[in-house]
Amino acid sequence: MQVQKDLNVLVIAHRYDAFIKELVDVTSRYVARVDVLIHYNPLSEISNYFSGILYFEHLKRFTKQNLVNTKRRPPNVRVHLIPVIYLLPDGRNKELGDKLAKKFEEYIVKNKIQFDIIHAHFTYPQGYAAVKLGQKFNVPVIITLHENGPHLNSILSNLKDKAIYTWKNADKLVRVTKRDIPLFIQYGADPSKIINIPNGYNPEKYYLIPSETAREKLQLEKNAKIIFNLARLYPEKGHKYLIDAMSLVLKKRQDVYCYVGGTGPLKGELEKKINKQNLGDHIRLLGYVPGDQVNYWMNAADIFVLPSLSEGNPTVMFEALGVGLPFVGTAVGGVPEIITSEDYGLLCPPADPECLAKKILIALEKEWDREKIRTYAEQFKWQHISKKYVELYYKVLTQYGGW
Fold first, then answer.
1. Per the CB 3.0–4.6 Å rule, which of 93, 202, 322, 354 could disulfide with 88?
2. What CA–CA distance (Å, rounded) separates 287 from 155?
3. Rounded to whole angstroms, how far apart are CA atoms 226 and 360?
């Protein structure tokens, strides 16, 4: 792809980390500059003084230090963390979208930020504010819709008018899953302006290393069957069903061990459930797993399991497939659009530990062609996904008359 050194992109996102950072950083290779605007509520810092309380554990995700990851940030990416004080949570705050639009406008003017197109992530408040800014600065707006089912339902329940306004007035909508595009059309999105582009993964972070090397590094039993899960410890990730499924799996074979990476408010509850079912020798909650350690776990495992009750298009699925790791999970969100063959993984309904246990046992017995899985996953590298976005930028700008 030809690099357009005169194309400046303004990104409005909820954070500069994880999949947002990865997409932005790769996209920056093909454009002149990317400015990322992130709103930050200073009141979230109060959570640093509390631990073990559900509300404050959730709030910690939005503290200043957890919103931005500047490691290996490309020189043409600038991240702007803008303080905005408010009390109502984002998902119920009907005034926040307009408040952000005003704050962002003032910041853009004061700091003389130049941009040709706006790319926002999520409908509200980011997408809504982006539409307002697009109208103010006369530039086109693209919004990527990452919302999972509960998130989308919450928006339609609490912020329906704001959401419909956003979908109708964006120049292009990108949904990470195909199956629910009709829902957005039902609520006013122009069918000609909504397309599907899935999420992706970073092959520089997740790559093949010998399983024996990974297990030695992690001090894992050489001949054990290893299940790996990586997800925030929140109800929608379905960990309690994975624990119940493991109880059933261990009735069939005792050489299976499940390692769960991630932090969240359900840690205590999940630990109690594990202990109550006497599964402490076979299920371990790892807590936070540093980025450089995740690749070892992916390569050490026999299968990756994600028992979510709801998803958009989980990045961790692509990361697992990227190292050739078979995927066992629930047929939610965009997962069935990626796990299109039993050559790549096995799926079951959500909240069904019996089915999950059955699929885990089948997966542990199956001879997987891991090179085939890895090759299949290559199409989802961020390099390929970002090119689709940059091509979309050009197309939208041309249609808009600004290119």
1. 93
2. 30
3. 11
